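note to self: dont lose this again. the chain is below, predicted strucutre after it. 119 aa total, dont forget to put it in the shared folder this time
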Amino acid sequence: QVHLVESGGGLVQAGGSLRLSCAASGPTFSSYAMGWFRQAPGKEREFVSAIAWNNGATHYTNSVKGRFTISLDKAKKTVNLEMNNLRPEDTAVYYCTTQPGIRSGWDYWGQGTQVTVSS
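---
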């Protein structure tokens, strides 16, 4: 079993910054990639960013490029999301997820952490 625990959400004014972290644990944990999704009220969950475990290749949805940075701490089995220049439309519950293998889906999810950006 794999457990993912997010932290770092909160309330911030537009233009501010937050740093989300997600710690992975469990005897069967292995990862091809780790990522972040978000879900705003009344909307579907959407992809935000992902990072490959082996080479650190990163991917971002267009709306966060240049503002968000994803990083990996392999020793701590932690993925971080540095969010700068936050906008009210970034308000959502942010979920950490992991893809165990190259042919896997996003199989494990954290409980989510709320990010609220006030205008």
